[in-house]
Amino acid sequence: MSTVTETVPDEVPCVVRPATAAELDEAGYRAANPDVARSGESVEAHFRTLGQAEGRVQWVNTDTVRRMRAEKLRRVGMRDDMPLTRMPDGALNALSPEVVRGFNIPDDVPVSAHPYGTPVIELIQRNRDKLFLDLGAGLRHTYYANVVNTDIYDTVCTDVMCVGEALPFESEQFDFILCFAVLEHTKRPWDVAREMCRVLKPGGTLMVDWPFLQPVHGYPHHYYNATPQGNRSLFEEFCDVISSEIAWHHHPAISVHWILTAWRNGLPPRQAKAFEALTVGALIETSPDEQMHRDYCTELHPELKKAIAAGSLITAVKRQNAGRITAATMPASGPNAADNGRIASLESEIAGLRLQLDALRQSTSWRVTEPLRSAGRWLRRVRR
Q1: Global pTM?
Q2: Does 28 map to a domain?
Q3: 135 exposure class (CB count in 10 Å sphere: 0-12, 13-18, 19+)
Q4: 136: nearest Cα among 175, 108, 162, 168
Q5: Region of residue 256 (phi > 0: left; psi between -120 and 50: alpha; otherwise: beta)
Q6: Are residues 224 and 265 in the same domain?
Q7: Domain boundary residue, one of 228, 248, 268
Q8: Same domain, 303 and 234
Q9: I need a labelling partner for 237 at 20 to 30 A (CA). Which of 291, 299, 357, 378 fits?
Q10: pLDDT digits (tens, 9 = 90+) for 63-73
């Protein structure tokens, strides 16, 4: 008796915003809204009283997404030195309790949900046979068969739960890596950048969107903003940066609008109204020293002041048990002509060895001895 394998689509909607109660999906609405699931409230009652006005969403096509995920993850090599847990929806979880504690990952916070721009959608659709990594994807409303979504939260589109500082993938797995408005939320973005370069194939392309002048915003934490120079500096060791752009959503108008809106919202009603009446000219022409005594400065809420501050100052005391810290060494200067020749020679040798390794992996003897290598890896883990 023959079986028919159902073909999975290239892409499918996975998140929708119901317009009316007739469009509600009980399971999908509860899955997308944990507060409703915890309260035990009727989905329709919540939607009519709050959900519709708040624009709440629901998961859809979850069975199709599960099948697409299973097929997609079969294409990706995973590290054997990092414990992974299979979630009920087929996603992989690399977040151990130690990682959750170390990175202070809370149970439930709002998840960033932004669509791809048209150029990125077209890039994904033009390269159906290529594998993309979306690092810190958040909640994407469309699920793609060739995009592996990582995040620290298990949403309908999350394929792998992990932190960017230690990706659970084998090296050189992805043709493209997308990382949009994520690095400011990472604890060690330099480690994330190195991991991105590690799992990117030679000749692969990465796209990194990193905010500079933006107020503090969580999801769940906010550590580092970056200048364009800072952005490219983390990738220049392993990648040739072919462009550095200021896109429309990076325009200074975005920063000014965001900062002024946050400032206005952090003031009591009377001061907020007076702040709105100020002109740009008045703000520019009045010195900061003079403005500091005005109520739109003195009455600003401390948390909003922190969110849009020009900087911060800490004072710290070294722990008694901090231990001895190894001195840093100065980085080597750039290679000279002789070094360039040596580097080119080594790169050629590496390329040849890589070809030999690829040929070896395709041989019958390699396939036959795979069980022995697996047993060896298992024994090494047991001994550790």
Answers
A1: 0.81
A2: yes
A3: buried
A4: 162
A5: alpha
A6: no
A7: 248
A8: no
A9: 357
A10: 999 999 999 99
